[in-house]
Specification:
By secondary structure, the protein is mainly β. The chain has one domain: Sandwich (Jelly Rolls). The protein has no helices and 14 strands. The strands form five sheets. It has a four-stranded antiparallel sheet, with no helix packed on it. A four-stranded antiparallel sheet has the order 8-9-10-11, with no helix packed on it. Strands 1-6 form a two-stranded antiparallel ribbon. Strand 12 and strand 13 form a beta hairpin. The chain is globular.
């Protein structure tokens, strides 16, 4: 995988803070920021802090982070966005007091799939999203170990 400089990306919404430390991007979220559309809760949140860069066909994006957060709905991972109502976010999110690996697929309303990963607390985790044709394959796992399948989801083939 070819590293991409953080400066290449463009924020969907500016975070509260951004610092580059030793090549790592440390982001402080605005309280209450999230990405979600309608399903179950009836609201739309379009205030996430996604650092977007083009992802061409037959390519992948990968991010590694430490699961060192514990508040409800704290999260880290990847965001692919084709349009305001067509996107995928995948990573590790705290829900019901436990880190969960999962993905939200929105087209045009959101669905959320998760699985508990309490053993990932304090560990470096890698999340990879791979594009091919009209789909994205999400894999995740502890950095340095084989990644496991999280989700295969539709994504517009013509999205940038």
């Amino acid at each position: 995988m070819t590293p991409v400089d953080w400066a290449v990306g463009e924020w969907t919404h500016a975070p509260a803070s951004v610092v580059v430390e030793g090549g790592a991007l440390v982001v402080g979220a605005v309280e209450g920021s999230d990405a979600w559309r309608v399903t179950s809760y009836g609201f739309t949140h379009d205030s996430e802090h996604g650092l977007l860069a083009p992802l061409p066909q037959d390519a992948a994006v990968e991010v590694t982070f430490v699961v060192d957060y514990a508040e409800q709905f704290d999260q880290a991972g990847v965001l692919l966005r084709a349009a305001e109502d067509r996107w995928i976010k995948a990573g590790v999110e705290v829900a019901d007091g436990v880190p969960q690996v999962g993905a939200v697929v929105t087209n045009p309303v959101s669905d959320w799939s998760v699985g508990p990963v309490p053993a990932w607390v304090g560990r470096s985790v890698t999340v990879r999203a791979s594009r091919s044709g009209d789909a994205v394959t999400i894999r995740a796992g502890i950095a340095g170990e084989p990644l496991r399948l999280v989700r295969v989801a539709p994504f517009p083939a013509d999205a940038a």
